Amino acid sequence: MPRIPLTWLAEHVDLPADLTAERLAADLVRVGLEEEAIHPAAVTGPLVVGLVVERTPEPQKNGKTINWCRVDVGHALAEVREDGTRGPRGIVCGAHNFEVGDHVVVALPGAVLPGPFPIASRKTYGHVSDGMICSSRELGLGDDHDGIIVLSSLGLEAEPGTDARALLGLGEEVLEINVTPDRGYCFSMRGVAREYAHSTGAAFTDHGLATAEQLAPAAGGFAVEIDDAAPIHGVSGADRFVAQVVRGVRADGPSPVWMQRRLTQAGMRPISLAVDVTNYVMLDLGQPLHAYDLSALAAPIVVRRAAVGERLTTLDGVERTLDGEDLLITDSPGGDRGARVLGLAGVMGGAESEVGAGTSDLLIEAAHFDPVTVARTARRHKLPSEAAKRFERGVDPQLPRVAVARVAALLVEHGGGVVEEQLTDVNRTSAPAPVALPLDLPARLVGVDYTPAQVRETLEQIGCTLPSADGGVVEVQVPTWRPDLAVPVDLVEEVARLRGYDAIPSVLPVAPAGRGLTSGQRARRSVARALAEHGLVEVLSYPFVGVDQFDALTLPADDERRRALRLANPLSAEQPLMRTDLLTTLLDTARRNVSRGAGDVAVFEIGLVTVPQHGAAAAPRLPGGVRPSDADLAAVRAAVPSQPRRVAGVLAGARERAGWWGPGRRADHTDAIALVRTVAEVIGVEVVLTAGAEHAPWHPGRCAQVTTADGALVGFAGELHPNVVAALDLPARAVAFELDLDVLLAAAPVDPVQASALSTYPVAKEDVALVVDSSVPASDVLDAVRAGAVAGPAGDVLEDVRLFDVYRGEQVPAGTRSLAFSLRLRAGDRTLTAQETAAVREAVVAEAHRRFGATLRA
User: Fold this and answer.
1) What pLDDT digit, counting tens, does each position of 419-440 carry?
2) Of residues 109, 105, 108, the one with CA closest to residue 140
3) N or C: which end of the chain has fewer CB within 10 A?
């Protein structure tokens, strides 16, 4: 994100004298440039110009020599002696690159340097050092720490005591802004200044406009060829390349202090004059540039695509294997045209032509590259350079000549040298296509009555050219620095943005009457609410799984759930598959909670699973930009796998916590089965549970299969297999259930359930303990009890029946068990007599005896 020093911005647009970074942020946000951060001044407290009046070298026992200095920092800041007089301050300094009479930068006690590094008076080397004489590194201006700053050598002179923060620009706040991808021109002071002018009406001076001479063709300089005969995706990788030779430059020398300061404020590290100047102009105008050591080049420079497997060592010292889509800058040593790779176009240069010590002749490059090509290369090689950030968002194709001229002038001014008269400009750019805009379109789309005159004024403000027609459709010629303006709605957005989003009224749409939740949606919400009321917590897990998760659930190799849909571009290589059942991801969620100390877990999830169909055809690749045909859409729909909706739950640890009321109870398979019945009751479907099912990941013999009354499979419930519990590190005897909600909803009654009349007569209670063979499922006995009670001589007076006790022991024969049921009986028209309740009890025993040979427990 670009950083904006206010003094730098003021070179492009008139700023108020009292403008603060906070106020600037408020002005820019009105035109869509949001504040990211405000960086405070690099130095706070007293930082002043000092005059060295005395310097005494003092050798130390450790072999080091320090300088005991007397420094004049102005009368107001001078050291106060015991007799009340004032004099120079005493400061210990370890550098030796200054003399008596030099003007230096002094941080006095109370100053805070970057780091933060507070300055205070302290005793060292036998003296009280009353401040510090500063180097560039200590002030955050560069990496030079071997010598302190001598202001006269930088062309800066000031009286002792002068505020050095203002002199060096170290007391300035810097605003960092967030730029959206479609507004790459704001990655420059030129672009931000233009937006500030749009927001406030301040006078803007465009330093990026090409002169008539710079618009004229140029040739005869260093030979350059653009060889992209087979452009990728129909777009050439480069359509302009400007090259300018500058000779006799002190290229590896330091850049001026003001430039280093601005680069540092903008978040870049000063390196050398040649590098700093190209970076400075890029930040100023928005045109990335590159400086080559001319002595290391061989004409011609050729811009071409890479050969697969070609290699390049970039400026960061990394050797990279190139791809056939990478666009390269090459030269031709030995006459072998384009044989040597100099850099990745628009991303990063190579090490072979890097400017180094002794470089005096430079070739300055400014080009215009295809945004998509640069973006793909930068991502492929993981090189998010400052140049790539700008090229991939779109750079003004008219900037290269302007930027090269600016770089050449700065190099000559600060490094000496001569600019060659001849210039190379290979220019294949074309003017942006005009955009046909109905002048009433902004008003129709935005809902604000923009007049044609207001639309015209706004578009001309951003640099567009419009014909003189007052109405209808006009051909708008967009400026070259706005490649994001390509269709009419782009221009509509600009009108809305600059006219003010706050002028757009908030109109809430009226909700159409007669609509609401579907019956399926209401049923799903009721299921979720019922499970939550039973103490389970609803979770939402990612639908991505890996083979190792299937292994943890001990799924057989031929299990259909292993045949999952594989993603072409998964979020994680470890989870490239779409889940085929809900329990796989829900168990992973339970495991994660247990691993973080939640020993008692009760969670559920309602979600979709993906079940690929056998023999399903692959989805066709549809062309872009046109509506697919009905046949194409049908083929796409046919290729989409089935995605049934499931509900699953996992219980582990304590189901009822221990307390004063008792010891508590661990969750077991009956809890899972009870929750299955709860889900079925909420939906209004009668389900049949069959014990003894074998279905991973449940424990064989402790798993119940759930079906509808007509035999449709709904799911399974019961205790998890011990191997699964161990693999997932869950508490012992964890239980789970998973049901197909779509099957349950399909079996739900279509007609609304009619509420039964409430009886005002008292309830009668009967308990029946039946002894049956241990192999008989309790659910089957429960069905027999219910059937006997309903068919009894008293009629259907059964209000509720539940199993409340299971007993195995000495009081019943071996191989049998006692199942005790509690019956609630109530008639709607009378109070039941003792004879009637006894008759119901006898009917229950008789029906259980008929079905299973059950006997009444003595």
Assistant:
1) 998 999 999 998 999 999 999 9
2) 105
3) C
